[in-house]
Amino acid sequence: xxxxxxxxxxxxxxxxxxxxxxxxGLVFVDGRRVGELGTRVAPNAVITLDRQAEAQQRSQxxxxxxxxxxxVSGQPEPGCTPAVSLIRAENQFRTPDTPAxxxxxxxxxxxxxxLDVDSTGLLVLTQDGRIARQLIGENxxxxxxxxxxxxxxxxxxxxxxxxxxxxxxxxxxxxxxVEWLNADQLRFVLREGRKRQIRRMCELVGLQVVxxxxxxxxxxxxxxxxxxxxxxxxxxxxx
Length: 239
Description:
This protein is an alpha+beta fold. It has helices spanning 3-9, 15-23, 51-58, 129-136, 158-163, 197-204, and strands at residues 27-29, 32-34, 47-49, 62-67, 71-72, 81-82, 110-111, 120-126, 144-152, 167-168, 171-172, 177-182, 185-190, 207-217, 220-221, 230-232. The strands form four sheets. Strands 4, 7, 8, 9, 12, 13, 14, 15 and 16 form a nine-stranded mixed β-sheet that branches. The protein has a three-stranded antiparallel β-sheet with strand order 2-1-3. It has a two-stranded parallel ribbon with strand order 5-6.
């Protein structure tokens, strides 16, 4: 197995970061320095990073943003603005012990997952490939919680179907936690993130989504972060 792929699978870093560390001679396999891209190793090989690579990982930023409607999480779409454009000093939500904004936090900063242009709530942007893999990797088990305001008439057995029994694009959806919070608002907890998944699920059972807000990813909550503002992931927080 290629050492970069093995490093990514073990959560040591992303594939891109692994290639960079290998090229710079910052990776050791079974105690021997590896400096050639494409090097193959045994699946049970012991892989460690040079202190320089470890220090680089510790200096990487992860940011939580309360994304407003009208901003896209990834590549800009016509008439829309990327959410990363909100990561500015004047939009930072600070407390006395919070580090100030520094332009270095924008270098290589990318969204870890999507949030639709017409949805609001918690969006994670990170420089750390390990965190990105936790949130969007194929084996991610993190659940994501949404508050969803709807109109329409729920079909018979609609709630049961939302919880388990629907398919999108000819693929069955994983079981979901779905419950009514009040007469027009549902709470969804998902462990996957298909494109416009909640809106499409609701349409299949006779409901139309008129408001969608993500309030939690794993153990990290949106909490009191104001709309349009951002903060750094705190030292005691993890996904």
